[in-house]
Design a protein that fits this description.
The chain is mainly beta and 111 residues long. It has one helix at 52-62; strands at 2-8, 12-14, 19-21, 37-42, 45-50, 70-72, 75-77, 89-95. The longest helix is centred in the middle third of the chain and has 11 residues, at 52-62.
Length: 111
């Protein structure tokens, strides 16, 4: 699992302009929306979720070296903003790696 989420307060409106850069597969090609990741957007933020294919490509690319990922986007202060109260957005990154170990074969026994 690889997921980025951004949730903004009511005083901010997400401009739905996420630009992803720096992320490349092992051959140097950029990741492709709806193939390597999905993007859900609304006025309060976004959720970027890697697909199984995207995770495989990322794992292969990471064997060649570190990956720099840049997420650029903006929001507009709207009429729900309160004077002297800072607006915030909350960004989370979820990464879960489940390593599968081979199941050992039971030892042979002689009855």
């Amino acid at each position: 699992t690889v997921i980025w989420k951004d949730s903004m307060t009511d005083g901010l409106t997400y401009n739905k302009n996420l630009d992803i850069s720096g992320l490349k597969d092992a051959a140097g090609n950029p990741f492709v929306k709806d193939t390597d990741y999905t993007l859900e957007e609304d006025d309060r933020g976004f959720t970027l979720t890697f697909t199984d294919k995207g995770i495989e490509k990322l794992e292969t690319a990471l064997k060649k070296g570190a990956q720099d990922v840049f997420l650029r986007y903006s929001a507009t202060v709207n009429s729900n903003s309160v004077v002297d109260q800072p607006e915030k957005n909350h960004v989370t990154f979820e990464y879960k790696h489940t390593k599968t170990e081979p199941t050992p074969e039971p030892p042979e026994t002689t009855p």
